[in-house]
Amino acid sequence: MPTLLEGKSIAITGGDQGIGRAIAERLAHDGADVAICYRSNQSGAQEVVAQITRLGRRAASIQCDVGKIRDGQRFIAESIAQLGKLDILINNAGLERRADFWDVTEADFDAVLDVNLKGLFFLTQAFVRHRMQAKSGGKVINISSVHEELPFPHFASYCASKGGLKMLTRNLSIELAPLGITINSIAPGAIETPINKNLLNDPAKLNALLQNIPLKRLGSPSDVASLASFLASSESSYITGTTLFVDGGLLWNYQEQ
Ligand code: BGC
Question: Residue of the nearest CA to atom 1 in ligand 1?
């Protein structure tokens, strides 16, 4: 039986853990061949490759630091070399550093912006150039955050990167539309992944956060992967330039006691 993403080749940054890993496995389950990149978690990447292969799909795993432009370009080139082409790019890799604004160092600022925005920008450019040659459209899906809208005190660099991603998504939706390329963002709220490990290990902080989430639970990576599956499929072909939130109601929660 043909599946939703049969014949599609998809590249996912940071596919070795957390949300990226759930998306990689879900899209392979839906029929896609998948290339992932990882920065240091080689064993996680190998597990994902094994799982995709078990599902009967082709997989590639490439070491790359998305924060380095040449690495990102190489990830796209090697994915194309190994899978034959790329139809869809999922910009998932991301990081955050906590600090009071007045203590943020240039090194930490650069680490966050280089991966979340600058690296993503040029990696997307490499993907778009490939799709221009292919002349048959394409899709870009960004994993943003509720914090492209919602302030996150002590994470100013992270918020700046996600706010920038919001406008990049809107801007590219116009510029890429004539090429038949759509671009959208998924904005997760609090999802149980390694990016959240400090929070998950602190019951008081975790409980305070849960009070802010109307659905009263953290999200799971699979909650995000199911939306990625829809956005990667042709079912979403008229959607571009927008952000879809997967946050249990966190973003718009306001109550008076
Ligand atoms: C951040 C998490 C945070 C969550 C909800 C995510 O974008 O990566 O650290 O807990 O938003 O605030």
Answer: 190
In sequence order, what DSSP letters do the residues of 211-239 get, joined into one string?
HT-TT-S-B-HHHHHHHHHHHHSGGGTT-
189 C-alpha vs ligand 1 centroid, how far in Å?
6
- Residue 145's nearest CA partner among 114, 116, 209, 188 is 188
Measured from the Cα of 152, ligand 1's closest atom is: 12
Place of tokens 């199911």: 226
> Which among 126, 122, 125, 170 is positioned nearest to 144, based on CA atoms?
170
- Indicate the domain borders of the chain: 9-246
Q: Which fold has domain 9-246?
A: Rossmann fold (3.40.50)
Task: For 22-65, write each residue's pLDDT tens digit.
Answer: 999 999 999 999 999 999 999 999 999 999 999 999 999 999 99
Q: How confident is the model at residue 2 (pLDDT cuts 50, 70, 90)?
A: low
pTM over 0.90: yes
Q: Residues with beta carbon inside 6 Å of ligand 1?
A: 96, 145-147, 152, 189-190, 195-196, 199
